[in-house]
RNA sequence: GCGUCGGUGGCAGAGUGGUCAAUUGCAUCAGACUGUAAAUCUGACGGAUUUAUCCUACGCAGGUUCAAAUCCUGCCCGGCGCA
């Protein structure tokens, strides 16, 4: 029995599609936004608020973080992550592959999912990418990073206490089995957009081998196979040819769905999607990892992406920025101190008309915790509402118009 | 009244002869953030500006010195102690 059923309700050739995914913990409609709850909590927001106020469909947690704290054994003893965190809806875990990048090549460099327009400082050249024959801890300190990759896996220095740990594809799958999410990801290497094509190819090959190993480990666990779906992750960097290559190889493996990983420059996301989605099987869900600005979601949907996850709505919320139909606003700006209008009347929903900008501006300035909560609920609802509008528009054959209209107002 | 310690930029608080328009924190202003090392980080923060420099500033007024927030004198104000 398959733990995941993906039903496509309507789709356009090589384009947007609407459907739903059933998991052992309920179903969700696609295209879907997966709210990120890295450490088994969506920062500043309770599960009850997610359900009733933010209209959250799916939550995504992180293997690396939960492994470090509290450890997968605790979560497993609690009865799995659903039980532990009291989220009984669809749940996903990410493999820790992104941390290979953010704590490794991207460490301290001002780059994460996208390159910045600013010239990045201290770009390490390919020397650091040379895997040592025998792993030596000093390599980490030598290059001031917390993670380093080799063929077998990745060695991490915990950002919490400096302890050295080792992740392999097998270990990542084992931890994710213990966490027990409905969907989880194969362990991959998220590469830097500043890596050369030859490195992208080398890392891609390794990610493909890791995908195979992740898949084997999962398939050998009969119990886990019944309850958990495994997604493989496409890499390939920014070159469309490499994207297509990686998608062809990962897409041919027996995964339940596919993640599209990597880090981009703003302008080549579209190309990467065009090249990287086509080789994937049409009947399986595609998840664009770590992307969540409205304009990027719309772009992804137009290419046939079914799932997104992103830190952006909650992180922005915590630092004082709200999404509105007319673009993002930073509540810490002087102009909102005396702005007694609702947060975003046009979006509707819980926080949009119950609280004023002046009140939230006050909470942020006073550093009250409730600021983060209200703002997070607002932003999450905004994105959920956008996803819902997107689905409706696909069903009604007017996605392109919707996209144009939305962006025109949003980017004015 | 006597003694003593002190008065520094919006606030707190360093500095105790030149490298001081003055460390740092807070506040303020602006910016960044996309599979969360993030309730975080970056920049600006006396005035003018040809961006080189000039002007005004460390309670007030004088003085010493090539040079004073820093030393001296007087005054004003505050804390503490004794009367």
In short:
The protein is of the alpha/beta class and 412 residues long.
What report would you give on this structure?
The chain folds into 2 domains: 5-98 and 170-310, Queuine tRNA-ribosyltransferase-like (TIM Barrel, Alpha-Beta Barrel); 318-410, no CATH class. The protein contains 17 helices and 16 strands. The protein has helices at residues 47-54, 63-68, 72-77, 81-85, 97-105, 138-142, 169-179, 197-219, 222-227, 240-251, 269-277, 294-302, 312-318, 350-354, 357-365, 369-395, 399-410; strands spanning 5-11, 17-23, 26-30, 32-36, 58-62, 91-94, 147-149, 154-157, 164-167, 183-185, 229-234, 257-260, 286-288, 307-310, 321-324, 327-330. Strands 4-5-6-10-11-12-13-14 form an 8-stranded parallel barrel, surrounded by 6 helices. β8 and β9 form a beta hairpin. The model is unreliable at 117-134 (pLDDT under 50). It binds one RNA strand of 83 nucleotides through α5, β14, α13 and α16.
Task: Summarize this structure as a short list of keywords or feature phrases.
globular, single chain, TIM Barrel, RNA-binding, 412 residues, three-stranded antiparallel sheet, 2 domains
**Helix percentage range:** 40-55%
* Radius of gyration computed on alpha carbons: 21 Å
Strand content: 15-25%
Write down the domain tally. 2
Ranges with pLDDT <50 over ≥5 residues?
A: 117-134
CATH architecture of the largest domain: Alpha-Beta Barrel
